[in-house]
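2024-03-11 09:14:02 INFO receiving multi-entity request
2024-03-11 09:14:02 INFO entity count = two
2024-03-11 09:14:03 INFO echoing inputs for audit
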Amino acid sequence: MLRASPLILIFVLAACRGGGSDTGSGSDTGSDTNTSTNTDTTEGDDLRAEFEAHYAAWQSFTDTPRVRLSSSMLPRVSHPEYVAMIAMGDPAVRFVMEKLAAGDIAMNYAATQMTGVDVWADVPVNLDWSAGGPITSAQDTTQLWLEWWAVHQSDPRWNP
Amino acid sequence: MLGRESRSRLLPLGAATSVALGFAFALLEPARAAECIYCGCDTGLGFYDSASECTNSCFGGLGCFEICVPVDITGDAPSAEQATYQAEVFPGLGCYGVTGSEVADYNCIAWSAGSTDRWVWWEVDRIYGNANGVVEVEDFDQFYDFGGYTTSPNCEQQVGLEKVALYVCMHPDGTIEPTHAARQATVPGVEGDWWESKEGAGKQIVHQLESLTGAYDPAEPAGCWGYGEVYKCYERAL
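2024-03-11 09:21:47 INFO inference complete, emitting structure
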């Protein structure tokens, strides 16, 4: 069972200030989020503003009925605004992590694409759910990302 | 919240079908109308919030049909706007009953596996499937295999078996894109081929197997109207 460390919980509390969404389908854009990462620069603010603009536009798309009623994540992650967030690259990974911390599981895909990391690579999974055991979910994947970020957030790659 | 004693919902069918069904139900099961909360009419009169309005409208000579699905509704009453977008997304929806609130905590795949607290999509490929980064029918074969399911020769109700239906969007280039899963269900007091679905981040409903289907349309975000078509069913012993 995956558990959040106290460090992660602190991060989550900080990142959740701006709210967030689950599957990119609700709530606000978290535009006033602020974390302890070194983003207190004009350049960092510009990056955040750019990311939040893409995120807000993407959320408008995911809030449409046809997307909201879709279980597939493909329409969500193939939208141009979502692709634009991914294209922002390493400096925007911290913003993705904030959205994950706020509960937006749709950002799992962006995290994978932007970092090239497979968070499930070394995690043992019980595949058999025939007897009613839990199935592995996007929420589990998000939890792994937050644990990964707790360890790697100070890496210079994510703080250019 | 709705009371638990009368929980039904009706949406328009085609005109001919509606009139026929309306007469049939009026003649065969007139008492069922009193159980309606919502009804739909071919006249586009929309949705009604009381059994009396429903009955008066549908049996007031307005050409309405009447089908009631007396299921337990656990969610809030749908707004007219929600009902409208349901009909927009699923043009063939017809009659259905709401069985769960609109929440984003879980989706159809999780529901098909009996979970109501998680969302499952990429994990079907990465964890249970071939981990090639694309969610494919083969991944679902493996996913349901881990749940004790095998491919069913049909999607018909069979005593002693529980079934899951997999919907796909068939693209013109031959790509078969999984879109949705539904779980076979029973509706107490109403015979028929009922299935139960969690609609993405939307509500949980009971419906007919084919009523969530729709044709390919490149303008659609998901590639198809509704969930495309029913591709196959899986089964396991109860």
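2024-03-11 09:21:48 INFO post-check: The longest helix of chain A spans residues 42-62.
2024-03-11 09:21:48 INFO post-check: Chain A touches chain B at residues 21-23, 25-26, 61, 64-75, 79, 105, 108-109, 118, 120, 125, 127-130, 132, 134-141 (CB under 8 Å).
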